[in-house]
## 1
Amino acid sequence: MTIRTLLQFNFKYYRRHTLLALLCLTGISLGVGIVVAVELINDSALSSFESSVDFLSGRATNSIISTFGRIDEKHFQEIWTNRRVTAASPIVDVIANTLETDSEPIRFLGVDPFLDAPFRGWTPQLSGKDDLAAFFAGDPPGAFLSSDLMKRFNLKVGESLTALDAGLEKKIRILGPLTEDSSGGLGENIAVMDISSAQEVFGRIGRLDRIDLLVEGSVSDAFPALPPGLKITDANSRKSTLTAMLYSFQLNLAAMSLIALFVGVFLIYNFSMFSVLSRRQDMSLLLTLGCDSRSLVLAFMIESVVLGALGSLAGVIFGYSIAAYSVGKVSSTISQLYFLVNNLNVGLSLRILGIGVAVGFVATAVGVTLPALEVAVTPPVLGLKRQSIEDRTKSARAYLFMGGAAFFIFSCLSVWASRNSIFWGFASAFGMTTAFALFTPGLLSPFTHYLGVVFKKSHRLLDAFLAARNIGASLSRTSIAVAALAVALSMTIGVDTMIFSFRTSVYSWLEDALKGDLYISPDTTKWDHPLPETLIKKVEADPRLDSIERYLALDVYLQGRPVKLRVIEPEILEKKARFKFVGGEESHKAWSQIIKGGVFISEPLAFKFNLKVGDFLTLDSPDGPKNFPVVAITRDYSSDQGTIQMDRSVYISIWKDDRVQSIALFLKPGASIEDVRKSVAALFKGLERTIVSNHEMRERVLSIFDKTFAPTATLKGVSLLVALLGIATAMMAILLERSKEIRVLGYLGLTPTEIGKMNVYQGLIMGVASFLIAAMCGLLLTYIIVYAINYRSFGWTIDISVNKWIFVETLGLTMAACFVSSLYPSFKLMRASSAASIKEE
Amino acid sequence: MDPLIRLVDVKKCYSSGPTCEIFPLAGVSLDMFQGDRVILLGKSGSGKSTFLNIVGGVDSPTEGRVFFDGREITRMSSQDMAYFRRKEVGFIFQSFNLFPTLTVGENVTLPLDLLGIRDYSRAHELLNETGLNGYWKKFPEALSGGEQQRVAIARALVKGPRLILADEPTGNLDQETGNGILNLIDKICRESDATLIMVTHSPDALWMAPRRYRLKSGVLLEEHYTN
């Protein structure tokens, strides 16, 4: 029998079972799709960000930045006149929202157009004296915007743009578009202004954010010594520094990707294996008729290549769509937590295409070839008996269970090993899901048996009794489908419980840390927008206030890595807030020591820099490096880079910087929060946007938290969908293979409705079994994610909180989805049973 | 006395287009009374199983009417036909068709469960009668062909149906075991006064019924034999 004949035989099978063929292809493509989507999101975040850094760096060979967030502009003269410097451009780089562009922030770049010309092509083409005057000394100051931004928001030349600086409105006149070439075609939201206008508008008089340089020869020769706190860098090291900030975020996505890969491969295997197993008898018959086993296996391998190719192709398209849908949420999360990225572009690279196709091909090939090999080596007479594979599955249960136990032990050991490398954290999660997947046949068999006994004893649920027994009887099909669904559900439960625990921990931290009755400008601290002094003085003068706490957050460098420096007022916070100290220090001692020049550090900082109470850390200052003793380690979820908290008066005395980005207002007893809010908001136009109550402040933080985990929800949904397709396929398999038994039920007097109900019960029981396995596995996964993955990558402690509603919701969703999955097979069954007749051999 | 089963000019045709191409039943009429026994003979594909399915309410005729105890089953909905089979008809198949997922006891009591009868004493009695006492918790795969057919007979008769339809019940068994099965069907039908229609190819089974019919070209021809 030729390969061609066998392939034609296989093709005819798919033509006869179009729906099954479609389900199989959908399963493969969804599995590939999940993996491709995660990889695309990960890649696009990084590459968009890198392109943005390259674009903004222009032709600069190097840049000078400050290790404590700002450069005194007096240093520019000294650098510019350095003989080895061919060109130097001072830059003010501010990110701000505007009323006209709604939620899309704009990067305002203050440049000197003459000094900047050698670096970038965006120097605006000033057409005449008027333009020149408007750019350099316009009132309101003028800016050129990227043409794409103007098009998208229908902004016109001559109109005003209202930038929000610490919530206060600042008018900027639109002078015209930057050319497509000069704005890089990156979709960046850029506004180019004169540097002195930018300094004035955004409260940065006398300071620069960086100085771009064109340097001849070696940089170290050109700058043997720089003023204290300044650091020379280049685009590549900026990229790697900022990419390092994304490490934890990407690790999170990578974890999802790995789990998705596992679920994807498992399900593709499930679908492919099913497509072969349902032809097991045909294959044995072909062997009986003289087909040689090598040709048979080869034919199935060729089939797997075709299936893998079609499924992978569809999967890549599907993954691309998912990524395109989710990328907006991801870019918003990165912008909120790390740095501004505009309009992430989803680009399919050869690497991702390769990963997607490899996953599709390998999983399909294994899924098709293994069962084909099994049939090829089985004597045809056994293969012809449907029961023989069930017998084999039954006898394999014990071995599978033992394999599961081995993986379980491996997973526990990996948790212990994760203290050395995060790799073991992932290995542990993988081991745990594999363990429960292998436990499934061993658990499903007694579960359905005893469930059947209960239904039988109830005398009412005969259809449910038969359904339970059918599942137990088709263990070779049902256990794989149940295991696949259980893996997807356990991932859902594990990740959801982790997110809930994390959210609860963050909420409890917010409750303790945020005690102000009102807050001003909390949103813009990440963009360093100082509040005007006049505003603070006016607010302070309000007799209804008990006290105010001034707050400043800066990006500083610790051992060359960016961390957050938070400048606080300990005298007020000691009385008003409840900090959670986790380093074993006494609260009152810690507060008294911070006033004397000590610092509090957050858990992630202590973890990443291996610092303990009593250690010293060194920060750059205008007077050179300064050492600060660590006096406490605090529970703090505000930044995964880590934070240092310092007394305001200590900070001012060293850095000579008394700016304030945010203030907390503590009211006297009896004062009305709403009244104070209204009167404070009336002090400056636009302040009502940034003055928020304690409750609103917490909600804002939590909404950022929720956004961070938004992509997880999309992936979770897709994994669940794939797993449910698995259930539908398994039920179709049972329907095909047990059609005769089902017809006998019709002869015995089961009505078509009862037969349909039996099938629905089958889906529901499989759903319940999957849920029960997933509940156990999911809880263990939560512990692994929290202690072996999250702690190892972020360094913060999360108190595990179990939310019963996660379980109720997952069960409800599973039951609803299993019900829907079972409808089509049930409908087919009801139609078949009404015209039932048994063809006797 | 009214007949228990009445078939009036029953026709069944199978077609792949608008016109009938195959007529397994081309106008069959028959009356059978309570306790009657009929043997149905015919070549493979002559329509014997179709006849049983139509009488048993599993299939519907293309034309003609079928009555059971005065009720026209050909006018029943699929739901009512199922209730009719549940209560009145016991099927015995050539390949036993036991549920491999259910124990012997569960297979036999399934028709009682369907009728909502919680008293399984009749099931125990029948298993005793068929010599399968002690097999209650065994699965069908552990039984021989003859034992499986005895379980199938117990399952068909446990609810006390008025009509028993047997489709070559000894076709998969050796002669000795087959004879044992025929004796068992005869004994139980006699005790319960059930009406029996049995399709068979086996000459050993002809003693079971005085009335024998042969289906030929869709027509039912009565045959007379002398022992």
## 2
Amino acid sequence: MVAEIGQFTLIIALCLAIAQSTIPLIGAYRNNLSWMSVGRTAASGQFLFLFISFICLTYCFVTNDFSVLYVANNSNTKLPVYYQISAVWGAHEGSLLLWVLALAAWGFAVSIFSRALPADMIARVLAVMGMIGIGFILFTLLTSNPFERLFPAAIEGRDLNPLLQDPGLVIHPPMLYMGYVGFSVAFAFAIAALLSGKMDSAWVRWSRPWASIAWVFLTIGIGLGSWWAYHELGWGGWWFWDPVENASFMPWLVGTALIHSLAVTEKRSTFKSWTILLSIMAFSLSLLGTFLVRSGVLVSVHSFASDPARGLYILIFLAIVVGSSLTLYAWRANQFTSGGRFDLISKETMLLINNVLLVVAMITILVGTLYPLFLDALGLPKLSVGPPYFSAVFVPLMLPLVILMGIGPIAKWRRVPVKELFGKLKVLLLLGVALGIILPLAIYRDTTVMTAVGIAAAAWAILTALYAVLRLVIKRDSSTSFAKACSKIPRAMIGMVTAHVGIGIFILGVVFTSSFSDQKETSAKFGEEIELAGYTFVLESVSGVQGPNYQAMRGSVNVTKQGSPVAMLYPEKRVYTVQTNPMTEPGIQTGVFRDLYVSLGEPLNENEWGFRIYYRPFIQWVWIGTLLMALGGLLGAMDKRYRTLAKAEKKATNSNPVTQTTSA
Amino acid sequence: MNKALIFIFMLFLSLLSVSNAQIISVSPEYQERYDHLLHELRCLVCQNQTVAESPADLSNDLRVEVKEMLERGATDQEILDFMSDRYGDFVLYNPPVKPRTYLLWIGPFLLLIGGVIFALMLVKRRSNNVVDNELNENEKRRLKGLLDEDDKEK
């Protein structure tokens, strides 16, 4: 019964999406206000019914309703309840439902927070989001219905893929999807601008925070994915340049370009058509990512749900979305005049180069990811494009970007004399280079040119970001107090600086961990001392442990440093009762400057086990940096000037009691 | 009790004929090169894993092969060449530079050059631009008026 309600509400949501995508658009065309306002109502309704649908599926999981095929395939009575809930999006059908729910949530958010927008603009934006909604709800209903019944019902479920039974995977997909789908808002704004021919400063101010928030979700989503890979795959790695990772990284790169390009469009009213193109690209890449992951054309360690038959649907949908939006772009984009004048050495040029580098990096990853497919399609011998290639190509592209990142925030719009820039930055430049040379030598008594360059880049990024904000305080008038000067710094500025410092910290983590990691694969007798990076590891014993839905052998590893205790680690080897593939659960001691990471191999005899030890310096900095980037994006989106818009919107709401009740 | 459990566990694994990454001890002088080489090689029967990480039997064989070649004094390149001769380029994570990978290797840099030229052309056009979209005096005064009004309302 509940499954039928879920399916029924999904169909209602489809009907509302159809209404949302047509009526407001016609209203905007004919200038009919009541038709335009249908968009908001439909968006709220679509979200409500999809939410009910999602709750129904969750209910089926929690109550172990194995007469639902999807539940029977991905759950089990023994599965802990928090994994029963996350199993809702553990495979294809449910993750699509989550995807459409996220899309509807964004539509709902737009309908609530954009009341101050001109009615025709909001009507067009919601209509475009409705069209995307139709595409994906239809996809769910036609090819991947999560509510399909199984008759006769299964007695026991086949359990969730053990790899997905991890806290990181509980929140990773929702975050990632919110990011992916979030770019649909920027996309819808772009299409609305193309349709109406209006792209004024109000447009930019409205679409910019949406793009930033989507970018924040995507950043957190990717960060969580890599954190999961580190904790669950048991190899001490955090990024594999895997096709599925690349699929999420490409929209991130373009999204990064987009939020920078939006800054230029807002401040200088230029780069308009380029901003539109980036908005289209960011969302198209999100769709491409969905296609690559869901269609099964790629093989990957992350791809748990794929079906070639479904690929065709997404491919056609992708072709329609990209094809029609690019056609519209080619037809209408030239109407946006952007005549702002600027010189070679100016903030505009630097942001332009930033965009060029990010887009080139994205295309590089795109080509690298798809190249094996092309060769395969041409009937040429198979080929692998893996981490060595991506590192070799990606790093040289990112280095100039980081250098520019230090100069850009300090440079002035329109024109800035080279002398002035150099005068301000030469001390920081020298300091950065010095730190790059000294830090690795001081900490590890070892370095290479690449390490020094990487650390110098990180130091440069952090120093220049701090300088960009501190100079506002240092160079205050003598009449303003320190506290007042601090409070006067715009939040967007603080956000930018936070994100840039985050990138510096991220680079520090990447460079240190890739330069000075150490590992050992060995066999360990109980009580045998194994040395790595100054630590002594002793596998003391291995004992059996009974988990809720698995059996495990748990090792006890005593870690000491020069005789004094450091940690007890408990790596496990698990065999899940239903899906019997063995899983490695590493034991990790996290520290600010290094992680100690052990994982258990297989028994060699009664008191000797295969044993892997990893020493990972500064690895947590990778995720700390990612978090700071996300925080920076969030701060930027919460800048005062967007809140003044929110205030205006409130006023509009108060004067209209009917709309107020719907938002409550 | 404990030993019995371990025994059952091992039996379980062997009954399932589940393959496991075997630990292969390499003498310290080769360790670094060994680790590096295993990360350059792709497991041929897995989804997308390096030989270093893969638990498949074939990867175990490849690890032994790499170890033995290292001990026989082969260079890294010789080992990689041997692997790609035997299994094709698919086994190499670092695609070799060949006519059919030219686009892959040169593409990004051509793109970068193209992008920078495009950007510079744009900059040149814009820096010669006499029409500026800065607000004129009238507009500035109007904007200030609007902002002041906004402040008063606070």
